[in-house]
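Progress report, Aim 2. The chain analyzed during this reporting quarter is listed below.
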Amino acid sequence: MRRRMALMVPAILASLPREAAAVERKRLERGSGVIEVLAEGRGPLLVLLPSLGRGQEDFDDLAPRLSGAGLRVLRPEPRGIGGSSPLPAGATLHDMAADVAAAIEAEGGGPAIVAGHAAGNWVARVLAHDRPELVRAVALLAAVTGTDIDPEIRRSITASFTLTLSDEERLSHLRRAYFAPGNDASVWLPGWHPEVSMAQRAAAAATTDKAWLRAAERHPLLYVAAAEDAIAAPPSLEELRASLGPRVTRVVVERAGHALVPERPAAVAEALVAFARGLA
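Predicted structure tokens for the chain:
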């Protein structure tokens, strides 16, 4: 029988200090365009990277919880969203990671805890490979570490951001792929950027090297799993250590699916803050 090893997030830890912090909006000039960066709070640097085809608004609830707990939260907007220029043709995950590296350098060079949600984990891990000196630790939130996804779930992933479908049909796909039963999937009806999704998928496909897959093992690593994740079922600690190295810690968030962050922001914040404080 597989031994279940996890740090469970207690239900009583429902919230963290949430003192309002002013959100700074910055424009970072790059040779290939502009990157919009949101920043708030003071303290050790933590970078948030959103999922496929989604922007930093996904972290609007999470970010103030983190900054209120004493972290400097940096949110570079993905290419093609907000004030960020579109992703250039032929770009790879290395180019996407270079944008994040530039944002960290603009803050003084970190090093930063880099947290990637779902597909954002690819960029976090590539950054750890390409610029390890900028990375203090890596956090993967509901991250896919393998490639074995049910074809019907893959269909629902694409249908979720197919805006020509009715809201009712898209909502059924969001429930199937992203949200645990009973959670409000309608919060993800907006916020999708289909062209960005396709560009990011193309960048991932163009990234043919594989060395970055284990690069995060150079750093302390937190894997935050969603207990009811239909896309990335929670791997055991043994599986994570086999694929990501021996320095990984696992936290399981109950009553959450692959969306995770809008479903259980307090639990995600608690896990990230505890991880950050454990690095001191």
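Residues 93-106 form the longest helix (14 residues). Residues 1-16 have pLDDT under 50 and may be disordered. These observations will guide the mutagenesis work planned for the next reporting period.
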